[in-house]
Specification:
heterodimer, B: 4 domains, two-stranded antiparallel sheet, 28 helices
């Protein structure tokens, strides 16, 4: 067992980012190594991880600013660890996918690594101060990825992305400060310790419901914008459309998961202590996100925008499962985070590959590409099938668990989702697939060829992963199940609380 | 011994799928022999299992999967006969496909997909729980999508594949809703499950059905029926099935006639106790089935595409099976045997008919019957095997279809005497039409003048061999197997902790005083509410005899009468009438039938393209104007404000310091106030 493994996990990509910045055209090799080591570390952690333990593991804690109660505390449990694993996997694959990047590759790969640093930090920090720092660090590489490597409207998209999520983060920061300034440790000092503060929110004498409601709303806004949930989602399609492929992949696969992570880590422990109306509000937001996202996807002309809206829809399942607050739904929602993180990669990579092989992403202009790129077509179709929830792949398991679990507490919402979104979801996926890949090959695309092997490789790996976790979900749901029990343990279920 | 290897029935085709997918390109005929071997091994295993467990044992294996779910294998009589049928018929079709797909550049892909299909269908059959069944159910749907769209360069094939997937998806959503509802109802019972028992396992579902509230049972039953309606092409979700003929003919035979579409019927049979217990559950099944049987038969009358005629026929015959299950309200579990017997018999003669049609199409290179005629001169084997298939489908005495379909009509009569005569009337009318459209097809293909210059040669033996074998079954299976089959399937639900009397009471099929004498093991004689009819329906629970002689003989008259009618119209030797004498080209009814009751216009044109896509466009407008609009409005406001605020940037240090101090003061005041109020 390696000591300080989490710090190492964060430090190595950071170091890698610095080196690749100065490595010029060799940057990709540096980046690959600097992302493979964390992957190996996280797999090692998976072996050592105690799946049945409900306490934090691999914890490290050092004083940082003692006078303010700021500490450097990191650790993981079943909520964070699957996302750590996801981050290390996706980072490697996205670097492989970007192997052919020629525009300022040193900066490009450095930013990708910096991104990994940010998300790993978010998923492991146990100190609100540290958490917030990492939360904000993530914005910077993404801002530059969109701003420097983006499409024609990159400036608009980058600024919109930055301001939108930053404003939400500030609201969240205020809420964190409110927690900080309200709670006093027994010895009179203040702390940013996440678990201590969250446990304290259960105490009505310290946090009266009226006050906790405001704090809760602030935190919630920060996370819902990041997810993103309706009606705070409009930054996402713009950011995706303009971002380079790798940026889109990281954005959808990892950055959005920060919002979901916040729900499980911070929102759910507080949920039983705030106004019961929040449950209804969040459930409605979740259902609208799912259904509305699916219909929006159906209306899109740009295949990348279609995929972007599918993220809105799929992330809605995370919100729904979380707020339904049954063991099954919460576990399913955590699994949806992981599963969507994997599957969305192949969708954005497909869109990116089509863009650079064919030169357009407008669905109506495509046609018959399967004829010229059969391997790509098979992989893309497998990805689309995974995304529309085909059993045998991870997405189905997650959605099934969320729906089954949610039905116990939110039957009506669940059924709306089932009836309206599942068919619509299948419709937009199949429609795009049919239009882009099937039918007779258009004359102008006769010279189109299969994409590079490294692109196919990273996409194929994702399909394999989706199959592995779809056929053997227990590999990771065991961990999540323990986490779900732990989240719900201190509190009663919604039914017991008299909400439903 | 064989039972220990039951999992190989699915595992081997999966292996064949992987092999064909990755190395099939380098093998002769795309590795088709792998798929044949894998399926044939499945047949051997199924036969081995049959020899081990017939007549009174079942196999149940299970292991945990994730969370509260398991994977398992359940082979009871119902599953076993399905396994035997599917492995047998599909093996023959795969052999045939080795000839049919020879030379197609996508042969490897074809055999990979066909192997995956085989695996999914077999997995669906022996699943021991509803979730696993659903998973394979969806995979079967995927394979169907892939195989219909096999010639993906053809826009019509790509469109048909999408339509099939989406239409069945509508049913699947209902199915999924049913599963979720059932799971939560069972979970609410707080059952004390033994180790190895899981909520969605069939034995657990059966054992606890009676504790679920009746209205919930009805909802669950309707959900499951929705799934079955989608997969088995019942009204109103049948629209995908005729279009599915865009795939290779072997696909049509394998998926859209013999096996996959039977999954819906199988589901209802598998969940029969639930339908039986659910008030109105079986009524819905009977209504859907009987209506579809007639409805589809009318469309079969007018189609000119030989495969579409057979497709409508499939829809109609599936309607018969559904109705057969539905009338189980009157005859209890006996209906399962009757319906599944028709399912098996149908898969023999329908596979035969499709393969014959494929043989014809392979030779003459067209699907259009108007361009055929007189083909019999050149394709004797195909003609006579198809004749056997057609006689069987039409229900000619002593052919398989006669025994199976006849029995459904008879029990529908019993249902009529007890509950409602409508299903019976629909089914009899459908049977007449079946005989007519079948022989309209046969006569116009094989007899008469050659209506175009087509290829004139018989198909190779790799294709004819399966035809002959299937013809033997289409001819003799019904006569040989009927009695044993009924008694074997009747024993199916005795393996479980089930009390049909109690379930019948919940479902409102039987009054308690009438039920008491019904001996254990006898199909429950349900007397229904129609006391007046009770005398006539005395024989409700017994098999076969007991109906008046004219009821017994009616199906024979119907079949022969239908064949004769078709003869008079379409056989040149005895032709008395011309079809145009009955219906002209401008006849509105004919037009309606040719247009398929305008379902395409309604479902695709109006519903999918106008309602659903329209909703999407409205959402899009809202998103741009409103949800994103306020943001842009805000930013414009801020920019405008900034124009004024910019004047603050004077460059004079004193101003900045003043602002700074003011800011600090404001902050201090705010914090103090907050403390006073108690916010911080």
């Amino acid at each position: 067992m390696i000591s300080n493994v989490i710090s190492l996990l964060i430090a190595i990509p950071l170091l890698g980012a610095v080196i690749s910045f100065y490595a010029g055209t060799k940057a990709k090799f540096v980046a690959l190594i600097a992302s493979l080591i964390p992957l190996a570390l996280s797999l090692q952690m998976y072996m050592e991880f105690d799946k049945t333990s409900k306490i934090m593991q691999f914890v490290e804690s050092y004083n940082w600013v003692p006078s303010l109660g700021v500490k450097y505390t990191v650790g993981i449990d079943g909520i964070g660890f699957p996302l750590v694993l996801l981050s290390t996997i996706v980072s490697v694959l996205v670097i492989i996918y970007s192997w052919g990047e020629t525009k300022k590759p040193n900066q490009y790969f450095a930013l990708l690594l910096l991104n990994e640093v940010g998300v790993l930090g978010v998923f492991t920090s146990l100190d609100f101060f540290l958490f917030y720092i990492f939360w904000e660090i993530v914005l910077i590489p993404m801002f530059f990825l969109i701003g420097s490597w983006g499409g024609p409207r990159k400036d608009y998209a980058a600024v919109k992305f930055f301001i939108y999520t930053h404003v939400a983060s500030l609201v969240m920061l205020l809420a964190i400060f409110a927690l900080y300034f309200t709670y006093q440790m027994p010895d009179g000092s203040r702390t940013f310790d996440m678990l201590t503060l969250l446990a304290a929110t259960a105490d009505k004498t310290i946090f009266p419901t009226s006050m906790l409601n405001i704090i809760f709303a602030g935190l919630l806004l920060g996370f819902l914008v990041k997810m993103p949930a309706f009606p705070f989602h409009t930054w996402l399609p713009d950011a995706h459309v303009e971002a380079p492929t790798a940026g889109s992949v990281v954005l959808a696969a990892l950055l959005l998961k920060m919002g979901g992570y916040g729900l499980f880590r911070i929102i759910l422990p507080m949920l039983p202590h705030v106004d019961k109306a929040f449950v209804t509000i969040i459930a409605i937001i979740a259902v609208i996100s799912i259904v509305y996202g699916a219909f929006m996807a159906l209306a899109q002309k740009d295949i990348k925008k279609l995929v972007a809206y599918s993220s809105v829809s799929h992330m809605g399942f995370v919100t729904l499962g979380a707020v339904a607050f049954t063991w099954m739904s919460v576990t399913g929602a955590m699994f949806q985070q992981f599963s969507h993180g994997i599957i969305t990669c192949v969708l954005f990579m497909s869109a990116g590959t089509i863009q650079h092989v064919v030169g357009t992403r407008v669905i109506a202009d495509l046609g018959g590409l399967a004829d010229r790129m059969p391997k790509f077509a098979v992989i893309m179709m497998a990805g689309f099938m995974a995304s529309l929830g085909l059993p045998g792949m991870s997405g189905f398991v997650a959605e099934f668990m969320v729906l089954t679990g949610s039905f116990a507490t939110l039957p009506v919402y669940t059924m709306i989702v089932v009836f309206l979104s599942i068919v619509t979801t299948a419709a937009y996926h199949l429609w795009a697939l049919q239009k882009a890949m099937f039918g007779p090959i258009l004359k102008k695309y006769m010279n189109v060829h299969e994409p590079h092997a490294y692109e196919l490789f990273s996409m194929a790996m994702i399909i394999v992963l989706s199959l592995i976790f779809g056929l053997q979900p227990g590999l990771i749901t065991d961990i999540m199940g323990t986490a779900a029990t732990q989240v719900m343990e201190p509190v009663m279920t919604l039914t017991q609380m008299g909400v439903i | 011994m064989y039972a220990d290897y039951a999992y190989l029935i699915v595992a081997l085709p999966v292996l064949a799928f992987l092999l064909c997918l990755f190395v099939g390109w380098h093998l002769p005929r795309g590795g088709g022999f792998l798929t044949v071997l894998a399926t044939f091994a499945g047949l051997i295993l199924s036969l081995g299992i049959f020899s081990e467990i017939y007549p009174d044992k079942i196999i149940h294996q299970s292991m945990p999967w994730f969370a509260n779910f398991n994977v398992g294998i359940l082979i009871d009589p119902l599953a076993l006969v399905m396994l035997l049928m599917v492995t047998f018929v599909v093996t023959l079709i795969h052999i045939y496909a080795n000839g049919y797909m020879n030379g197609d550049p996508g042969a490897a892909r074809y055999f990979a997909e066909a192997a995956l299909f085989t695996a999914s269908m077999l997995g669906l059959i022996f699943a021991d729980n509803l979730l696993q069944l659903f998973i394979f159910w969806e995979l079967v749907g995927l394979c169907s999508y892939l195989l219909i769209g096999f010639w993906y360069r053809k826009p019509s094939a790509a469109a048909a594949a999408k339509k099939a997937f989406l239409t069945t998806r509508v049913g699947d959503v209902l199915f999924l809703a049913g599963i979720i509802l059932l799971y939560n109802n069972l979970a609410n019972l707080n059952l004390a499950l033994k180790p190895g028992e899981y909520l969605l396992q069939f034995p657990v579902i059966y054992a606890n059905l009676a504790q679920i509230a009746p209205d919930q049972l009805t909802l669950i039953a309707l959900g499951l029926l929705g799934g079955a309606v989608g997969k088995s092409g019942q009204f109103p979700l049948h629209v995908w099935l005729p279009d599915a003929m865009e795939g290779p003919t072997t696909v049509s035979a394998m998926i859209h006639a013999a096996t996959m579409v039977t999954a819906g019927v199988y589901l209802v049979a598998r969940m029969f106790p639930l339908f039986y217990a659910a008030p109105h559950g079986l009524t819905a099944v009977a209504a859907v089935g009987a209506f579809t049987a007639l409805f589809a038969a009318t469309m079969g009358l007018t189609s000119f595409d030989i495969k579409r005629v057979l497709a409508f026929s499939t829809v109609s015959q599936l309607g018969f099976m559904m109705a057969g299950l539905g009338v189980g309200a009157a005859v209890g579990t006996f209906a399962v045997g009757v319906s599944i017997f028709h399912l098996i018999g149908h898969s023999f003669f329908k596979a035969l008919l499709f393969l014959c049609a494929g043989s014809v199409i392979h030779a003459v290179n067209t699907n259009d019957m108007r361009e055929m005629g007189g083909v019999g001169k050149y394709m004797k084997w195909t003609m006579y095997t198809m004749l056997i298939g057609s006689l069987s489908l039409a229900g000619f005495p002593l052919f398989t279809g006669f025994f199976s379909k006849d029995e459904i009509i008879v029990i529908a009569y019993e249902y009529g005497t007890l509950i409602n005569f409508l299903p019976y009337i629909f089914l009899v009318l459908a049977a007449v039409l079946t005989a007519i459209y079948t022989f309209r097809m046969w006569f116009s293909v094989f007899t008469g003048k050659e209506r175009s210059d087509y290829g004139k040669h018989e198909s190779p033996w790799v294709m004819l061999g399966p035809l002959v074998i299937l013809a033997v079954f289409a001819l003799g299976f019904g006569y040989v197997a009927q009695e044993d089959f009924y008694s074997y399937l009747d024993s199916n639900f005795k393996h479980y902790d089930l009390d049909f009397v109690e379930l019948g009471v919940i479902g409102g099929h039987a009054l308690e005083e009438h039920v008491a004498p019904a001996a254990e093991g006898e199909p429950v004689a349900a007397k229904g509410e129609h006391e007046a009819a009770a005398g006539e329906g005395e024989a409700g629970g017994e098999e076969g005899p007991g109906e008046p002689w004219y009821i017994q003989i009616l199906p024979i008259i119907v079949a022969i009468g239908g064949i004769l009618t078709a003869m008079l119209f379409y056989w040149d030797k005895v032709k008395k009438f011309d079809p145009s004498q009955v219906t002209g080209d401008k006849d509105p009814i004919r037009k309606l039938l040719l247009k398929g009751y305008y379902q395409h216009e309604i479902m695709t044109g109006w519903f999918a393209e106008t309602v659903v896509y329209g909703t999407a466009l409205i959402c899009n407008t809202i998103d741009i104007k409103l949800v994103d609009g306020w943001l842009n409005w805000l930013s414009a406001l801020v920019l405008g404000f900034a124009q004024h605020v910019r004047k603050v940037q004077t460059g004079i240090v004193q101003n900045y310091v003043t602002a700074l101090v003011l800011g600090v003061v404001v902050l201090v005041v705010v914090i103090t106030l907050a403390k006073e109020v108690g916010l911080v």
